[in-house]
Amino acid sequence: QVQLMESGGGLVQAGGSLRLACAISGTIVENHNLAWHRQAPGKQRELVASMTSRGTINYADSVKGRFTISADNDNNILYLQMSSLKPEDTSVYYCNARATISQRDYWGRGTQVTVSS
Asked: Distance between CA atoms of 63 and 46, rounded to whole angstroms?
């Protein structure tokens, strides 16, 4: 009964900031690799940021220095802090949890982020 629910999306002007949150229920985040993905219309899904169960963090080159991924393990919440937003960041953002043992993927329904010029 693992469920993920994103929140925090919205409309912002270029240069602005947003913080996305993903509430995870039905499991323990320490047993999963965590990530944020995004997908714009007509484009492939893109890995934005990831955090392994061991704490290793990676970012896509397009967001490096602007986005920060973090997790609140006590409350099972995954965050994505986004700063200096650009119109090309406009997309639906999805959180993802992958079980370290089974490698099973769990996804949220997504939250829309729109950045205006």
From this structure: 11
